[in-house]
Amino acid sequence: MDEEYDVIVLGTGLTECILSGLLSVEGKKVLHMDRNDYYGGDSASLNLTQLYRKFRPNQAPPSELGRDRDYAVDLIPKFIIASGEMTKILVHTEVTRYLEFKQIAGSFVYRDGRISKVPSTEIEAVKSPLMGLFEKRRAKKFFEFLQTWRDDDPATHQGLNLDRDSMKTIYEKFGLEPGTQDFIGHAMALYLDDDYITKPARETYSRIVLYTSSMARYGKSPYIYPLYGLGELPQSFARLSAIYGGTYMLDKPIDEVITDADGKFVGVKSGGETVKAKQVIGDPSYFGAGKEAEGGKIRVIEEGKVVRAICILKHPIPGTDDSDSCQIIIPQNQVNRRNDIYIAMVSSTHNVCAKDVYVAIVSTIVETDKPELEIAPGVNLLGPIYDKFVSVTPIYVPTAPGTADNIFVTKSYDATSHFETVVEDVHDVWKRVVGSDLVLKKRDTEAEVQG
């Protein structure tokens, strides 16, 4: 391996694959390596044998679950918000040509001991058991305020300032009850905790508008999901990178990230060979995860672990109108926690499991030394569980921006049930690597590139 690359990318998680695809389009010479023999890294989708091998190495999957190839079970479940940043990247890069999407059938919220649908229309809102009659009127005025807000028209501001006033101030102005605030902040603005309430309202406003505009695109829920599982996403960006000259090497051990006397990145050693590049981007596992990482490139964030339970069911989740897929959010106040609990469910409709099988994944941020008990409120909503696989994974973030040593580390995936935070990390790493903001340019078509 004598040739030198502009960038070596380590790990084929979604963040890394998006970056390598975008850098290749930009004309960078990219080498992408992964120690695994499959795409996706921590965010892979596994077949049945791989799933059992990962969690129970000594147990073969039960034959009654059907064929191996019918399964693509996500290790980290996330849905795509129809009008969100992830969709913009997929459309701008034309990666959508390699993927098919299906809508997620319903978005639900847990409140007062029951599951209720997040209203997607005014008619649903009027009928919703989430609010009483007078509260519905107040909520209607709140949503009308958001919909009619124009930055350049003070007449639409009702004396409020989104950049100065907190969400608490705005909730109080419209007299919204705590339960309604929970539903708006967690099921629509998709906050993991309540810290947002004391901050300026601008971001919450933007998040609610994103949710409602995504809902308006398809009706039943604001989420879409790729057929054959999330593992299709990194593969599609890998294909984009390859079209633009990127080189991929799977099943490649990474023995060492080599630096010079000043600590600057030089290259990567793999199986006795060293390949050189100007910069390296990689997921945290290539920079000390699992080892003593003090003084290293990564650290665990405070409240820094996610607990996830992958549950195989033989029925839809009770209380969801027999939906073939859904998201359920349990706001933290409903279960006396600091962080929300998320449930994501998909089924054979999405080509990720056998017919009459449903895969539900319950996840949250760990707050105690008994993580499995923390997801119990979510697991208890699922009805009888055929099998369950529980994992607890740390959330790593880089200790330095990487601009000094040309080593750029991505973040671990958080507990959110959507991709917006992943895209934030893509933008952040891109700016550190390239030195300017990521601007999504319409690229040439494949035929033009090859021609």
Element layout with pairings:
Layout: E1 4-10, H1 14-25, E2 30-33, E3 45-46, H2 48-55, E4 73-74, E5 80-81, H3 85-92, E6 101-103, E7 106-111, E8 114-117, H4 122-127, H5 133-148, H6 167-174, H7 178-188, H8 202-218, E9 223-226, H9 232-243, E10 247-249, E11 256-259, E12 265-270, E13 273-282, E14 298-313, E15 326-330, E16 341-347, E17 358-365, H10 371-374, H11 376-379, E18 387-398, E19 407-409, H12 420-434, H13 446-450
Parallel strand pairs: 1-2, 1-13, 2-10, 7-15, 13-19
Antiparallel strand pairs: 3-4, 5-9, 6-9, 7-8, 11-12, 12-13, 14-17, 14-18, 15-16, 16-17
InterPro entries: FAD/NAD-bd_sf, GDP_dissociation_inhibitor, RabGDI
Family: Belongs to the Rab GDI family.
Protein name: Rab GDP dissociation inhibitor
Please, could you describe this protein's structure?
This protein is of the alpha/beta class. Among the domains are: 4-44 and 231-300 and 396-450, FAD/NAD(P)-binding domain; 119-218, Guanine Nucleotide Dissociation Inhibitor, domain 1 (Orthogonal Bundle). 28% of the residues lie in helices and 24% in strands. It has 13 helices and 19 strands. The chain has helices at residues 14-25, 48-55, 85-92, 122-127, 133-148, 167-174, 178-188, 202-218, 232-243, 371-374, 376-379, 420-434, 446-450, and strands at 4-10, 30-33, 45-46, 73-74, 80-81, 101-103, 106-111, 114-117, 223-226, 247-249, 256-259, 265-270, 273-282, 298-313, 326-330, 341-347, 358-365, 387-398, 407-409. Strands 1, 2, 10, 11, 12, 13 and 19 form a seven-stranded mixed beta sheet that branches. Strands 8-7-15-16-17-14-18 form a seven-stranded mixed beta sheet. A three-stranded antiparallel beta sheet has the order 5-9-6. A hairpin with a 5-residue loop joins strand 11 and strand 12 (265-270). Belongs to the Rab GDI family. Keywords: GTPase activation. This is Rab GDP dissociation inhibitor. One of its GO terms (molecular function) is Rab GDP-dissociation inhibitor activity.
